[in-house]
Amino acid sequence: MTSLIEKTQTLISANLHDLVDRALQANSVAVLRQYVRDAEANLDALEKAAATVGGEVKTLERRYQEYKRKGDQLDRNIDTLIMQGKMDLAQAAQAELNSTRRMQEQYHEQWVRQQREYDSLLSARLKLQAKLTTVRQEQRELEALMQLAKSKEATVRAIKSLDDLVGVGDSDIARIGESIRSRLDRASAHSEMYASRLDTRMDDTLGRAEIDIQLEERKRRLGLADSVPGFTAEEDQAASQSSGS
Question: Are residues 56 and 140 in the same domain?
Fold first, then answer.
């Protein structure tokens, strides 16, 4: 019983601010939750103990009242026996009264002691219930604060991640872009070179064709060349005359 009362008093006298501070430092409401579990367990044990002691108080009170009534009756009987001159019976009744009064006193002492214990248990029960109600409220508020803190921390992490991403990869992207532009420049240069070479080859080819035609015409005028492929004799002769004129 003493151990239970001591545990209950410890819970009742626990500093709520200290509990909240420890919970905040640990970033967890586990401290308060454990306190609530301990308080609930001790409150349940306290109520059972109070019921037991309360029953004992009623039993002791009943026994005390029984011995008191018996003692009062014996006290009256002794007076009657003395008045009747029955001293032997009065003597025996007095001895029984003495024993009865001793038992009455013992039960009275036990009754008073248990009544104080019972009152103490009831008082501790009320105090612990009040403290438990307060802690439960603090627990709910603290849980809400913890949840809000976690949300804010997540927001801060997200913002920090965005801040960290700002500028990240810019140099790489710039380098890749420059590389692509360089490749495009080289490709353009090669294209221009190939186009220039083709133009030159086409000019050379066309120039040689014109010279060949002129030489063939000279051969025909000189009568050294065969007929132009695809021309008739008359057309060939006409062409020669036209060339001579």
Answer: yes
The rounded percent of the chain whose pLDDT value lies above 90 is 28
| Burial of 32 (C-beta count, 10 Å sphere; 0-12/13-18/19+) | buried
Contact predicate 100/74, CB 8 Å: yes
| Res 244: pLDDT | 47
- The answer to whether residues 8 and 42 touch, using CB atoms and an 8 Å cutoff, is yes
What is the structure's pLDDT at 29? 74
Query: Quick one: tokens of 5?
Result: 């009362």
Q: Is residue 235 located within the same domain as residue 186?
A: yes
Structural domain containing residue 188: 182-244
> Is there a single domain that holds both residue 193 and residue 72?
no
* Range list of β-strands (E), the chain: none
**234/90 Cα distance (integer angstroms):** 191
Rounded distance between C-alpha atoms, residue 119 and residue 130, angstroms: 17
Residue type, 83: M
Residues in the chain: 245
* pLDDT tens-place string over residues 88-141: 999 999 999 999 999 999 999 999 999 998 998 898 888 888 888 888 887 788
Q: For residues 65 and 71, give the distance between their C-alpha atoms in angstroms, rounded to a whole number.
A: 10
pTM of the full structure: 0.53
Contact (CB, 8 A) for 99 and 67? no
Decide which of 108, 135, 165 is a domain's last residue: 165
One domain for residues 72 and 193: no
